[in-house]
Amino acid sequence: MEDQVRHPKHVAIIMDGNGRWAKARGLPRTMGHRRGVEAVRQAVRTARELGIEYLTLFAFSSENWKRPQEEVGEILRLLKFFIRRDLAELHREGVRVRVIGERNSLPADIRHLLEEAEELTVDNDRNTLLVAFNYGARDEIARAMRRIAEKLVAGETTVDAVTPELLDAHLDTAGIPDPDLIIRTSGELRLSNFLLWQAAYSEFAFLPCYWPDFDEAIFAETVREYSLRDRRFGGLSHEIAS
Ligand code: IPE
Ligand code: IPE
Ligand code: MG
Fold it and tell me: What distance in Å separates the CA atoms of residue 215 and residue 208, rounded to the nearest whole number?
């Protein structure tokens, strides 16, 4: 029982450090992103083996458009490559794919591919892979607020009904439990606009390795270390309370 309680249901990862991984090898940054895709495949597999029900991967932020056009183009290309190559296998393995982030401003071909991935896998219930693409938490919260405001104006909800639960239900992550554990690779100690609302009681693991080096052993060890933590959610720890 205790084991179950401490096992993370939802792990979210800020996959950072592709550029530095490449630079350290004298390679162009785009090579780091390519290797990053291989690390993604491995992480999805490992999450399944570790019994993690929900895995969220931060693939591209709403702020990443500031990068040179060539790099952005390569990242979009790799997303298409990943979906085309891996979607069928994900579906076979019973993985449901969901995409969070702003979609309307994405190129039409990317938008259609993301929709195709979601539609194909909508009835799968073994694991869920959430892909955060063109995702920014402030943008997500603002979009949720806008939808609630529209309902208020239309008389479909009341001011008193605006609660944390209502906001939750209007976020891109509606229906998905908050992340138990948020991992960031590359040694940076920040959230960079990732899941700001959902991370209220998440545990954090900041790892020194660059994303292309994140492997099964590192993932398993990070989850093991998480399982030893005492999460209190504002209450008292098990030891003190009992
Ligand atoms: C993460 O690696 C991938 C994306 C943000 C798309 P980076 O590209 O940020 O790599 P660093 O942080 O510059 O090393
Ligand atoms: C966060 O990494 C976004 C992704 C991993 C997709 P960044 O590399 O964009 O974050 P900053 O700029 O270092 O904060
Ligand atoms: Mg980075």
Answer: 13
- Cite the beta strand spans of 107-184 per DSSP E: 127-135, 181-184
Q: Domains in the chain, ordered, with CATH? A: 2-230 (3.40.1180.10)
Inform me whether the pLDDT recorded for 137 exceeds 50: yes
Q: Is the pLDDT of residue 4 over 60?
A: no
59 Cα nearest atom in ligand 2: 6
**What is the percent of the chain where pLDDT is above 90?**
95
Contact of 21 with 212, CB cutoff 8 Å:
yes
Q: Which residues contact 137 (CB under 8 A, 6 or more apart)?
A: 191, 193, 194, 195, 196, 197
Do 90 and 43 form a contact (C-beta atoms < 8 A)? no
For ligand 1, residues with CB inside 6 Å are: 15-20, 60, 64, 75, 186, 211
CA atoms within 13 A on the CB side of 79: 24
In whole angstroms, what is the distance from residue 184 CA to residue 93 CA? 26
The stretch 26-51 carries a mean pLDDT of 98
- pTM for this structure? 0.96
Distance CA 156, CA 196 (A): 27
Q: Note the pLDDT of residue 1.
A: 42
Residue 188 scores a pLDDT above 60: yes
CB count in 10 Å sphere of residue 56: 25
Tell which one of 15, 37, 60, 64 to mutate to probe ligand 2, the residue whose CB is within 8 A of the most ligand atoms: 64
